[in-house]
Amino acid sequence: MQFEFKLKTIDQARSGQVLAVGARQVPIDFVRNPRARRYVLRARPDGSARVTIPRGGSSAEARQFAERSTGWLERQFQRLMAKPIRPKEWLIGTDIFFCGELVKVEAGVNRETGLIRFGSEVLKVHDPAADLRSAIERHLWRLAGKELPPKVLEHAAAHQLQVRRVAVRNQKSRWGSCSRRGTISLNWRLIQAPAFVCDYIILHELMHLRQMNHSARFWREVECAFPDYQAAERWLKQHSALLM
To answer: What angle do CA 20, 24, 27 make, to 5 degrees?
Structure first.
């Protein structure tokens, strides 16, 4: 068994329906979830919406709930439009997160050398004019593999905890995990987050070596090790879409 710091994931069932929100028609999905206790409406970054139907609920009631909430939904879309969206392609001039700050991907002094740079990093690529995302992400992963494990061992020693192994992985829906055997796994994308966020995730997972759960006792351990953990969680919530 292992405990993970997860991002929220959603199983979607397309319904093909639309909802009038202001002056536009918004595609809307109705998804049944037997574990849900109430109807929940969500605005998605792609301009669609989703309604969760709880156990015992009906599609008709879900539709009425959504129609009563169009004003709220329109405000949510306005907020989403104001937030930066992670570009699909990383080109020269694209802003990406590195060590918690937005840095611009720039061409080297001489484009013919195939060098690019972002923040303090310089990287040789095959074609600086192409999509650079894969090359930059590979570089960041390698960098995370060098920098994150020593941080884990340093924090573990400070808290007198034994770590058997540290792995840096390409996790799609979580920032980190801790196994009962003492393996700490971290998402390489933490190299893009601020140092205090990275420290929080590491300490969050290390505290699972004391409490293999998310009980009140576990959170007291986290707060003792990292008193400002809520600020780190807020940063992750605000920027997860750009990182993941």
So the answer is: 65
d(CA 128, CA 209): 44
Asked whether residue 156 falls in the same domain as residue 203, the answer is yes
**pLDDT exceeds cutoff 50 at 12:** no
> Residue 39's domain spans which residues?
15-82
* Number of separate domains in the chain: 3
Within a domain: 36 = yes
For the sheet containing 121-124, what is the strand order? 106-107, 115-118, 121-124
102, 36: one domain: no
> What would the mean pLDDT of 140-168 be, rounded to a whole number?
97
In this structure, the chain runs to a length of 244
Q: What does the alpha-carbon distance between residue 49 and residue 224 come to, in Å, rounded to a whole number?
A: 39
Out of 20-24, 101-105, 114-118, 216-220, least confident range? 20-24
- What is the distance between the alpha carbons of residues 144 and 170, in angstroms, rounded to a whole number? 11
Same-domain check for residues 60 and 129 = no
Question: Are the beta carbons of 182 and 167 closer than 8 angstroms?
Answer: no
